[in-house]
Every structure is written in structure tokens, then in C-alpha cells.
Amino acid sequence: MIYAGIDVGSVAAKAVILSNGKILSRVIQPTGWSPGEAGKAVFEAALAEAKITRQDVTRIVGTGYGRVALDFLDRAVTEITCHALGANYFFPANNLVIDIGGQDSKAILINKDGKVLNFIMNDKCAAGTGRFIQVIAMTLGLELDRLKELPPAKPATINSMCTVFAESEVVSLLTQNVPKERIVSGLYRSIARRTAAMAASLGSVRGVTFTGGVARIPGMQEALSDALGCPVNVPDNPQIIGALGAAILAKND
């Protein structure tokens, strides 16, 4: 049987088609102005990539903040549950999931089956999220993709995790001729330390899976590993983890 998972986030919509426990297709597209349209479009693109039709899909589960806009789902589930299952698919030995997306960040403690034991989430402000990085990148005059190309450097000190105040700090550092790569390294370190502090309340860790769009940045991977004091595992495509978890849930229902 074939199952589908759709994750409509604030920045990107993702869809995964699953059959016999294997991924048939995975697609990521910008969410744009309409979560409902984005969810439908990414689902259709995933069907086309898998060379199947809607009638071939047994069950569809949706997640993400835009799930309420999808009227063709069999079930809608919170992203916490879906990220836990998706991360467990790739790294079943790990019991901590760190997800940093466009508008929120979360730490999820899970068991060996991917069931959520506890979690903590920051969705009240942009601090420590993809949006936070985007604002700082704009202040530095850099495209987001350019951040991954910057060489490692000694981190500059960025004290504030408030987007507005951190932006002011960055402007001040630029006027002092601090190299951009040092500022970006300082940004990663600040986010990583905040995230590690958030995760510390959840209990002992035996392995970490890092997901979300921010997990694609090598410098952020290194900073998070340093802050947590242990290696972090990153799936090949960390943005699809929520959609994958939704597809797994569709299969398990």
C-alpha cells in the first residue's frame, strides 16, 4: 500500500510518498501566500515524481501549521508527533530530536519507537529560528545560501537573542570591521547555546537528530554539536522529516 505525508510550514511545504517502508518520492516547495494551495501543489508534485495518482494512495496525513488549510486529508496531526517518527526512521538509536524551522524551534525526547516522551518548543518569537538567521543575513548583505559558503572562523560575541537587538549588535560589529564570517559563527553559537539550554530540561541524551531547514547549514551543525557536547546526526534531507513522519503515521493508523 501507498501512504502520503504533507507538512506545510511557514516557509516551505513538503510531501513524502511512502510504500513498503521506503520513500518513493519527496518534494519541497515554497509555501507562499496560501498554505492550502501550497499543500495541494506539493502533494501533486510528489504524486507525479512517484508516477502514481491520487487513487493509488491509501491514506494521507498532514502536519505543520498549514495542516488546517488542507481539506483532503484523512487526518491532521501535530508536527511534534510527526517529527519524532520521521527522525526515528533515519536514526532509531537517538532519543533527542532538535528541529529548527522557519518560525519555531523545538526539542523532542523520544523512545526507541519514535513515541514522544516530552518536548519543549519556542514558537513565541523568532529568536533561534530560520527567520532569525534570515534577518541577520539580510543585515550582513548576504543571501541565505551564501552563509553555507563562509569559512569557519572564531565566533564574534552576540549577546542578544532578540531579533531586533541582535540586528543592532551585528550593525555595531560591522562598524568595528569584524569579518562577516566571525559574525555568522557568533550567530550560530548563540542559537546553538539557546537550543541546548532548551533541550537540557528534557533529560539524558543518548543521541541527537538535527532536523529542519537550519540543519542544512554545516556551521550550525558544528555549533549545535559543540553546545550539546555530543555529535549530531543530520538526515540527507532534514526538511522532509515532518512529512515523512506524517506518512509513517498514515501507514501505522
UniProtKB/TrEMBL annotation:
Domain of life of the organism encoding this protein: Bacteria
InterPro entries from the UniProt entry: ATPase_BadF, ATPase_NBD, CoA_E_activase_dom, Dehydratase_Activator_Redct
Transmembrane segments: none
ATPase BadF/BadG/BcrA/BcrD type domain mapped to chain residues: 5-250
Molecular functions per Gene Ontology: iron-sulfur cluster binding; metal ion binding
Iron-sulfur is among the record's keywords: yes
CDD domains membership: ASKHA_NBD_BcrAD_BadFG_HgdC_HadI (cd24036)
Cofactor: [4Fe-4S] cluster
UniProt-listed SUPFAM superfamilies: Actin-like ATPase domain
Pfam families assigned to the protein according to its UniProt record, in alphabetical order: BcrAD_BadFG
Keywords from the UniProt entry: Iron, Iron-sulfur, Metal-binding
UniProt protein name: CoA-substrate-specific enzyme activase
Taxonomic lineage: Bacteria, Bacillati, Bacillota, Clostridia, Eubacteriales
